[in-house]
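Technical note accompanying the year-one report. For the benefit of new consortium partners, we illustrate the data format agreed upon in the data management plan: each record pairs a sequence with a structure-token string. No post-processing was applied to the example shown here.
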Amino acid sequence: MDRIGFKNVRLLTAAFAFLAIFFLIPPDRLHGQSCDIAQFASPKTWTGTVTTTIDGSGVLLESPSGDTVEYSIHQSINLSPVVNAPQGGNGSDGYFGTENATVDVRESYIVHFPGISETSTTTIVGNGFVTGFLGSAVLAFEPLNCTYDLSFGGFLITGTITTNGVSSPGPVGTGPLGSVIPLAPAWQVPLPTTGTTLTGSTSFDTSYAGFDGGPYTIHVSTSWSLNAAPDLDVLVMIPAYSTWRPTGGLSEQEIGLDPTTLGVNLLEIQAQLVTKSTGQPTGVSPDKWTFSLVQVSHEPGVAMNWPAQEVAREDPDLSFDHQACFTPIGCQVISENNLFTMSNGDPNSPTASGTVAELLPPDPLIYDSVKIMLSPHDWGAWATLNVTATVGSQKILGHLVLPPPLVTDPNDTDILLPQRQAGSFIADNWKDAHNIPVSTIDEDDSEAKPNGDGQSGDGLTLYEEYRGFYMGCRGSGFPPSPEGSGGCQHVEGDPGKKDLFVVDEIPTIANGGVALFKKTSGLSVHYLDMTLDDIHDADPLKPSSYRVINFNHSAAPHEVDQHALIISLGEQSGYNEAVNSVASRPGLPKEIDHIAISSNYEEFGRDLDASVAHELAHSVDVYHHGDVDGVKWWMVDSSGNVTEEDLDNDDNPISSTSRTIYVKYELDDPSIQSTTVKTTALDLGTKGGFIYVGNNICADTGVVVMNGQHSGDEDSYMRYVAAQAYIPSKYPKIRFWITEPPKGLKLTDHPAGTGINLDTRDPRPRYGDAYSGAPNQGAGSSTTQRGNDASQIDINDNHDAIIRPNQVVCP
């Protein structure tokens, strides 16, 4: 066997050597008399950390071989021992357990052989985790001299041994091949005179034999800290955990009411100190109880739109309070909280208190179980609760216990309030009540009902719909009631349906139309008693905040500033108008400045509701069925001949467009060019008058243009019913004098003509199907087709409005 091979055999043999180094505390540090070790021997378990580093380097001359060895040794050993009293015994007999060691080894050895230039280089590298065999960690208390001993056994990990460039796996541990000894000597360390924490550190130089014999000089540094793991546990019970959700009042200082009972919506939290091994109450009070709200929310206001942004505060949304104030002047004492001292542990709100509640039990026996009440101040509040019982120097964190068959993790001491999924701020029970998976994210805005133009969402995140909105609460002395009760109301969004908010300033005039629009559009429209006070700014001179409905937001998910619609009485007469602040067309809510209702709204009669619904549809990007009909100027001469003139942009007749027309009844023969309607029935006056014609002609070609605003489905309230006359197809000089049927009461979704526009109607369809699209611009596609009213709806201000091309008289 050559010399290199011989050394490798000795190397592997040394891997299994056991080395123990005893570090003895000098005698003058030992106690001179026996002591009571009961407080140290009573716990069932001790845990802690032991950290050891071993470093050494130098040159060693071996004898009798005469070899010279250059060595460099570095080892890092971090242990997390867990030692337990023997089954059926106690700690006076010692504690035994596992080391749970993380080991990192870096060593190198260069052997110089005497008389020759040949050398051998070996490196040893290893890292890993080993539990260690049961009993490899030992803790013993010695009452005769008031000391404790802590010792550990050796173990092996798999490392890599490389000699002269050739590597192979090998055992690393208990010796120079990655020695984990000395982790600690067989210590005799004095017990602490105060407290029960076993802590200390030591460092020393020593040597040991190993690779090729040694011994190698090393420096050892060791520190340790162990604590008794008391046989105690804290159980936290929240009886209403699965059903409770936070609520709010009129201000951040008020406590929300329970919508069902109308009592203060306090959440009862119970905590009990028990013996962990038996689960039974201890019957002994801890030194201190602490209830802490960590990661508590600070959303401004109490709901997405209340109060106004300039006065909304960002106080903690959940707190422990001594009294419950549920109206501006009404408060009641919370008796369960009387013994607790409230303080502020929340750095995000330095002036607020109530995020920490502490109780120093006044009786050592009866406060092993306590109860405290949590107050909500916001409909979207959330927090993480920690409950701690302090016993001596030990802090025992509580964990939630749910009723069977539900199971909670006893190691999870962060209790989410309300009951919710990690990463979500929404109560699980709210999601359950709305039939959506609890895994649905708070940012979700995927409502598909009504489908509308195919784009999902309503501009409100799921969290914003959960937190909700206020309507009609300005000047209210009462907390909000559920939507539909009138007055001050709390409104939730519908996660399955798109939500739209409408401020109707003239409810006795327009509320019927809003109700019709809600019924026929499929949208969830909220409007009852809503006022300008319920939106961010009612001032159109503030475009960045004008009409915003979800302005109170901070850390919670927010997608876009979503806008409410405003209906008011306009100065104009004869027509209603959705006033687009961007362009003269339908648009999204963010673009519609307001809906102006005609000052002479009485003239609409039974069509008023449908007319209001019509303008609301324009405010969610629904277009007319076409664009080509309009008002003309008619005149009758002394011979009874009727002429027609177009109008300019100021509604002045254009004499150059004058044409002779023949006014007939609808059942008359259009091929006979004569006027059969008595001119007195036209009521034109001596100089002429305005007549609304339901379609048009191209003056350049004489072609009759159909498919205008009066076309399409007769039942749709998007179809105009203002025409007094229409032009039959192929007869550009004929005007049939008619009366239109009442305005439709539906928002339909098919462009084909029905009723008076049905293609098989006798004697003829009046205006035909709705406009199918501009030539060469995708005629018939979903973005240009008119009359598919319900398929155009979009209320999401995070989108861009789909602009449909105008129909022109002469293509």
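Partners are asked to follow this layout when depositing records. The radius of gyration is 43 Å.
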